[in-house]
Write a structure and sequence with these properties.
The chain is α/β, with parallel strands linked by helices and 208 residues long. It has one domain: Rossmann fold (3-Layer(aba) Sandwich). It is built from 6 helices and 6 strands; from the N terminus they run βααβαβααβαββ. It has a 6-stranded mixed β-sheet with strand order 3-2-4-1-5-6, sandwiched between helices. β2, α3 and β3 form a beta-alpha-beta unit. α2 runs parallel beside α3 and α5 crosses α6. The model has no long low-confidence stretch (mean pLDDT 96).
């Protein structure tokens, strides 16, 4: 096992109704479901699903994406709460306007790993450690390749974990993917961890 396919969840209600992200739990839109179906068909045609185990965040926008993919690939969805987006504390379920007005003040203009954006939420350092701990466990306990449906921030930090970023390196680099995109992490003949594909959304042209 040396391959991880990452799918960023498809369009969710929070994308179109001015709600904040993070732990706000909203379902897929109709467009989001169509996006998930296209991703599922692409994956079905491009890989041997018997070589993969499917994991998903428990938040609706990810788990509903994963259910559509799993149905096409004949895979059960293994729900893992640790694959959630960063914990936004009291901002969960609130509007973007509320979040903008109620986030904790920053102490500087540079990225701060220990900044807690919202009361009762996670810092970025806590978030990264959660993601790393989760992926270490999944990677070590599964003999099959991993297919993971998750969120933008989580996908970025899974990628950073794969490339063995130190916490300090997170201050100067980030991996920004898009909803309904596919990324692929592999290993090469030199036993190096490789970011083979990132933020591939070419399949979405089928929506036009």
């Amino acid at each position: 096992m040396g391959r991880i396919i990452l799918v960023q969840h498809c369009q969710s209600e929070h994308h179109i109704n001015e709600m904040s992200g993070g732990w706000t739990d909203t379902p897929l839109t109709e467009l989001g479901r169509r996006q998930a179906e296209i991703i599922a068909k692409k994956l079905r045609d491009g890989l041997d699903s018997s070589e993969y185990i499917l994991y998903s965040s428990d938040l609706l926008r990810a788990s509903q994406t994963a259910e559509i993919i799993g149905e096409q690939l004949g895979l059960d969805v293994n729900i893992n709460k640790e694959l959630r987006e960063i914990n936004t504390g009291y901002a969960a379920g609130k509007t973007k306007e509320w979040a903008s007005a109620n986030r904790n003040p920053r102490t500087g203009s540079s990225f701060d790993l220990d900044y807690q954006e919202f009361q009762n939420g996670e810092t970025w350092r806590q978030f990264y450690r959660r993601v790393c701990d989760c992926l270490e466990l999944l990677y070590e306990t599964n003999k099959k390749n991993l297919l993971i449906v998750t969120h933008g921030g989580t996908l970025a930090y899974i990628t950073a974990w794969w490339l063995q970023f130190s916490e300090q390196m997170l201050g100067t680099a980030y991996f920004s993917a898009s909803p309904a995109s596919i990324s692929v992490l592999t290993r090469n003949a030199f036993n190096q961890n490789v970011l083979e594909v990132f933020n591939d959304s070419s399949h979405l042209s089928l929506l036009n």
